[in-house]
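Letters spell out the chain; backbone shape is given numerically. Both lines appear below:
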Amino acid sequence: MRALKRARAIVPFAALLPMALTVIVGYLGAVLWSVRISLTSSRSFPSDHFVGLAQYTRLFDNERWLVSQHNLVLYGLLFVAACMVTGFLLAVFIDQNVSGEGVLRTVFLYPYAMSFVATGLVWQWMLTPDAGIGQALAQLGFGAGGFDWIVDQDKVMYTIVIATAWQASGLVMAMMLAGLRGIDPDIWKAARVEGIPAWRVYLSVVLPMMGPTIATVFLLLSTAVVKLYDAVVAMTQGGPGTASEVPAKFIMDNLFGRANIGLASAAAVMLLVPVLALLAPYAYARSRKGRA
């Protein structure tokens, strides 16, 4: 009987073992390996020649890396803001008990089911000056190449923001809608009795109550910013020039195209820093909430 009880107690841990091994070996092991390689002079193959922080010095002396950092910050600010504002407004619209709510939710959420590569290729065609929107504007008499952002070094990052925000806003809408549906209806009744405008209720009451939802959405969008790669490759290949270069593309180019494992590993470690900076406060807040 005791043996049976012990076996039953072990079963949950045995079920979690594959995931634990994946985390320890696949994730933590890969991170530690990257840190180690970043401290060596590795080129085409891993090397044991320790060079300290030389790869990090080379990294921050590299103009492409600095450009990619600037582009990522610009993209991140615009992408997160666009997704959160658009997603919230769509959620507010659907929360008004509009007819065909199920169809609208499906339509708004569908783009997120597409891969970023497919999204990038479609938007590349739409934004190419001699095709898509540019051709349509030319036919309307606005001149050839009336919408040439994708080939303009100063505007190309905005085209990537437009394409990726279009794709991700549906997911934000779904999460925000779930948060809105969790608001007590009595709040709206009391607001109507007091004659408080709807916008003021959303701003002063609803949004603060949706704090956990907003924090989760912000975390998901922020990690998506750090991982930006597919859409850039599909739309611009980092061009024109290096105008749309991003850290993930810099890493992949040095890892596979330039056979510079050491520099790529140093860049990967630096790319991990903002992710940890985002996850640490979130994990700390969750742990404090769990203890409370």
